[in-house]
Design a protein that fits this description.
alpha+beta; 177 residues; single chain; elongated; Beta-Lactamase; seven-stranded mixed β-sheet
Length: 177
C-alpha cells in the first residue's frame, strides 16, 4: 500500500543513542515517564542497525496505540567524530500513524532538512538539552526546517530587550546624567 496524503509523519533523529528530535506526542508524555522517553531509542535499536538500509518496525506506545516506524542508520553529515575519533552515526526516520503506509527512502529524504540543524547543534556545541519536538505533518505536505517557533522568537526578543536595558543603564551610570 502507498502512503496516503492524510497520513501523519513525525520526523525523529537519534545520534549515538541520544534522542535529539522526537515526535511531539512522545515529548509530551515522556516528561513524566522515563519509559516513554526511551521508547523510540529502544525501538530504533541503533546499535543493531549498521548500514544505510531502510529499517521498518511497529512502535507501540502505551495509551496511544501502534505506529509505523521507518529509519536508516547513516553517518552524521560533515564527517563528525566522537572523542575516540570514530565516525558518529545517527538514526534518522519518521513515525507514521498509518501502519499500512509504504515508507520509503524518499519519505525520509523529505524530512531530512528538518533534522540537520538540531544534529549540527548537538555535534558542534555538545548540546545536552531535552530533545526537540517535531510536529506532525501530513504526508502530502512539504516539510521545511522550522528552527524558530513563535514562542522561541518571542523569548529571544524579550531577552534582547532586557539585555539592551541593562546595557543602557550601565552606560548611564558611567557617563552620568
Amino acid at each position: 500500500m502507498t502512503i496516503v496524503a492524510t497520513s501523519r509523519l513525525w520526523p525523529f533523529v537519534i545520534v549515538e543513542s541520544r534522542l535529539i528530535v522526537t515526535p511531539d506526542f512522545l515529548a509530551r508524555r515522556g516528561g513524566s515517564d522515563p519509559r516513554i522517553r526511551r521508547l523510540l531509542v529502544n525501538a530504533a535499536r541503533v546499535d543493531q542497525a549498521r548500514g544505510t538500509a531502510l529499517h521498518r518496525r511497529v512502535l507501540t506506545v502505551p495509551g496511544e496505540g501502534a505506529y509505523a516506524l521507518a529509519y536508516r542508520y547513516v553517518p552524521v553529515p560533515g564527517g563528525a567524530r566522537d572523542e575516540a575519533t570514530r565516525v558518529m552515526h545517527m538514526a534518522e526516520g519518521v513515525v507514521c500513524d498509518d501502519l499500512d503506509a509504504e515508507l520509503t527512502d524518499e519519505t525520509l529524504n523529505r524530512t531530512r532538512g528538518y533534522l540537520l540543524g538540531p544534529v549540527r547543534r548537538y555535534v558542534d556545541q555538545g548540546w545536552s538539552g531535552p530533545p526537540l519536538s517535531s510536529r506532525a505533518v501530513l504526508a502530502g505536505e512539504s516539510v521545511e526546517p522550522t528552527p524558530w517557533s513563535l514562542g522561541r522568537l518571542a523569548a529571544v526578543v524579550v531577552l534582547a530587550a532586557a539585555g539592551l536595558t541593562v546595557l543602557l543603564l550601565a552606560l548611564k551610570r558611567v557617563l552620568g546624567p
